[in-house]
User: Fold this.
Amino acid sequence: MLKTFVAVMTSALLLVVIPVKAGDFWQQQWTVPGETESNNLTIRPIRESDKARFFHAYMTSQKWLYKKLGWAWPSEKSTLEQNSTMVNYHLEQAAEKTAFTYVVIDKSDSSIVGAVYMVPVAPERQEQSGISRNAYNAEVSWWLLESAVDNNLHNDLFSLLTRWLGESWPWRQVMFPVSDKNATALQLLESSEARYIGRNLDTQEKYFSYAISRK
Assistant:
């Protein structure tokens, strides 16, 4: 699932000039949002200097994440070298504006507690689940450490993420793909304004459509 993902800007500059169409992931005239924060969390682009902390963060919840996410990641055999390659790939994608990866920071201790991925809609969504790729600008997914979920930071993250999408991103409609095993994310989406649109029995994923409202 890691198909993922920087420049600082104002939301006003982001949302002007080029009309947004469903199906557009990125237009070169757009400016990539930098970071956003709430009282508890900061979401900011992943950096090369994050590599070691990023690796050690997700490996503290390796078994839990592997079970919940359904991504075949992170493996118990994951290494720092593999992590470095993965982060380099995310950085290349961000530079090329083909996908964007952000880390989630707990402001209480500046630790990395999760990540957010903004990626183009995968072709197999339409092939396997009948979901039109042209109806959505992007897929948005995330993970949080088990300790962060235990501290109820998932509620704060989702509130911050959806607010950020409305204030700083140019898209109209995004899709949230979530594993059937990820009960925390499913509960968030089912109680939100997101709309359930289908599932893939083979991958055991559910899909939710989210219309981005502008302030």
Q: What stands out?
A: The first strand starts at residue 36 and ends at 37. The chain is about 35% helix and 25% strand. Residues 1-19 have pLDDT under 50 and may be disordered.
